[in-house]
Amino acid sequence: MTITTATGVPVSYGIYGTTVTNDSDPRTCSYTHFDLSSEQLGRTRRYNCWGFTFLPRRYWIDSDTDVDNIIRDNCVPVVPGDVRPGDVIRYRDDSNITTHTGRVWEADGAGNATLIRSKWGGWAEYLHLPPDVPSIYGTHRAFFRQVLPLRGIADLWIKDSPADNGEQCSQAPWWTSPDILVDVPPYDGAPDMNPVFGQANRVWTRISNRGDAAATNVYVRYYWADPSAGLSAGNWNLIPGTPGHPNPAGPFTVSANGTMEAPYVEWTPTASPAHQCLLAVAYINDNPQDSSNLDPLVYPFDVPWENSVGQRNVHVISAKAGSKHKFTIFTSLPWLQKAAKLGEIQVVLAHAPRAAVQGQPAKQVALNVGVSIEGGKAIAVKALPAAKRPGMLDLPDHRLLGTPIAMGSLPKVEFAPRKRQRLNVDIAVPKTARAGSTYYVHLVQRVGQVVTGGYTVAVMID
After folding, report:
1. b/e sequence 122-136, b meaning 16+ C-beta within 10 Å
2. Cβ–Cβ under 8 Å, residues 307 and 170
3. Could you give the C-alpha distances from 164 to 171, 300, 319, in angstroms and in order?
4. Which residues contact 359 (CB under 8 A, 6 or more apart)?
5. What is the pTM of this model?
6. With contact defined as beta carbons under 8 Å apart, do 63 and 12 qualify?
7. pLDDT tens across 400-426, in order?
């Protein structure tokens, strides 16, 4: 198998060992399997830092020349102040030789990397501070953003949002996958806006292969979760299979550079505080050390980081002018932590205006949105002056989710491990709201500068 850069330059790679030795370093990363068991990503020559960065855990990339070619052909430079999670960090020594690479795991509000995930040669995979690497790697650091996939490999992909381009670590809102679809009774094969409770819904997903090698023996697992702005692996519930419609569904093949609709499962949701979340994982197998896996799962329950995982937390409300609506979702830490974390719930009201009539612009009328959390904290979103309206969470194409017109924040919210808190949302539609308009209420959960979950409500005015 020949792997090349985007311009066709061959990349030299191999596997120089398959054994894994545990590492006592507390920075060592682990892998969570579907059964929630944990496997340490200890010392191995299965892959190196360059293999982790550009061929996630598949192979050991042989030389700095190969990596320089990948950065030149598949990446673009990132200037200080614009660094974000998912970007590539490159280390060079005083001789200007590329010695090490990794992925930015966290960045601060000023656009600077604060935490890196990387593999240290034959050592383990670690989470570490940017300068916290062996001295032989040098101190000259630069950042890049991968914009093109490598050629010659399979790369399964479920869109995280309409603007997702398939690269590592989608930017928010990564809970708005357009590729997870629902058909409610009476079935007509066309996607519906919302599932129905107490009846069998057909749930399926659109899966793409952005690589130019076919992905064979593919399966997809379908999950549901209670409506939440933060989900840990323990919150995912596998949808039970039914005769003729097993879960996981498969096996099947996704052709090179192709897209297909995977087999559906039958899902009967029960009563819920609100619209339940749907998740899908496309995979070949669940073994990060399998040398025959052409597209390994790297972060099985981490939606923004794993491009073959999708999440749909989109709740559609058909509303009339003058109507009022209430719903409840949950917030929680999306990972297993020993200590509580302080964060915030950001609320963004966005608007997709009704088309102008007879040359007159459509008048923009804001919804009244109030949000409260267990413990008594409550806010109401406040209108933004037109000159201060930001792009929606700095997305490359925020227009797909409306233009922000009002914002608010619940600050200093304590997110505790394995503890869910109720988030109550009240929406009042003014009598002057124009029929045909669509509003989006985006609930974004943040811990520090990291978006750890979210929930989106689309309010369509009849």
Report:
1. ebbbbbbebeebeee
2. yes
3. 8, 18, 29
4. none
5. 0.91
6. yes
7. 467 888 999 999 988 887 788 999 999
